[in-house]
Design goal:
mainly alpha, 11 helices, globular
């Protein structure tokens, strides 16, 4: 079974899966660019975008990834893989102190010292980079199995990476007045996604099989549900536009539903 998978379309998707994951991860750079030109982002747009991203991820996890995994490896194994994904990202979340894992834009007052601002930006970049590692594996795993679905997930991940890029670049830019330095830190936090995809692929390649791919679907679904519930939705509501969040969630689910019907 393993050898047959090497000759199939799954391995042929590796290049495209890595490309999609890289684009999604480096979208943090878009956030740094926005920070240069917009003094204060329109929070309603950020709330809507985060809700849209969460809607896409939650819908595809429960309506496509988990059912496909259960069909391939059975209900017990599928559900187990799903919760293993949740536990992995949960452990990563726990080892990062909450104060250093904000995932949100904060407007800095004039009285805050440059050194404190720089520290905030660096810690935020580190926290986001750690979180982006399993996100990269999730995006890559989805694209490896289905390029069309992988592209949709990559777009959803890219949307929520934009405000993460803002949260990294703004304090560093305020501290150093150096746009290039702010962009570099934002870039490095996003690089963790394709790195996570590449490391995951190299580890899994010798064991690649239909059963493993089915398990990976449920595992990816667990990661995306956790990210949506623990990060995207709370952050979206913190911007104070609840109706925009709900509209984004519903629209994201609707777009995902139509996309799946067309596949």
């Amino acid at each position: 079974m393993c050898d047959s998978m090497y000759d199939g379309g799954v391995v042929e998707n590796v290049g495209m899966a890595l490309l999609l994951t890289t684009v999604a991860g480096l979208s943090t750079g878009i956030g740094s660019v926005i920070a240069y030109f917009i003094k204060k982002p329109k929070m309603v747009y950020l709330s809507f975008s985060l809700g849209l991203s969460a809607g896409v991820m939650v819908y595809v996890s429960f309506m496509e990834l988990l059912p496909s995994a259960i069909e391939g490896i059975g209900e017990v194994a599928g559900v187990t893989a799903f919760f293993v994904g949740i536990m992995l990202i949960g452990v990563i979340d726990l080892v990062i102190p909450e104060a250093e894992n904000p995932h949100e834009f904060k407007e800095m007052s004039d009285g805050v010292q440059d050194r404190a601002l720089m520290r905030t930006g660096v810690l935020t970049a580190l926290a986001i980079g750690i979180h982006n590692f399993p996100e990269g594996l999730a995006t890559f795993g989805m694209a490896l199995n289905d390029v069309k679905l992988g592209a949709i997930i990559a777009v959803a991940v890219a949307i929520h990476n934009i405000p993460e890029g803002i949260s990294v670049s703004v304090p560093i830019f305020y501290a150093t007045k150096d746009k290039n330095k702010a962009a570099i830190y934002s870039f490095l936090s996003g690089v963790a996604e394709p790195v996570g995809a590449l490391v995951g692929f190299l580890v899994l390649l010798p064991f690649l099989s239909e059963g493993l791919l089915a398990s990976l679907l449920a595992f990816v679904g667990g990661i995306m549900v956790y990210i949506s519930v623990d990060e995207l939705l709370p952050l979206a509501h913190k911007y104070g536009h609840g109706h925009a969040v709900i509209l984004g969630i519903v629209l994201g689910m609707g777009v995902m539903a139509v996309s799946l019907l067309m596949l």
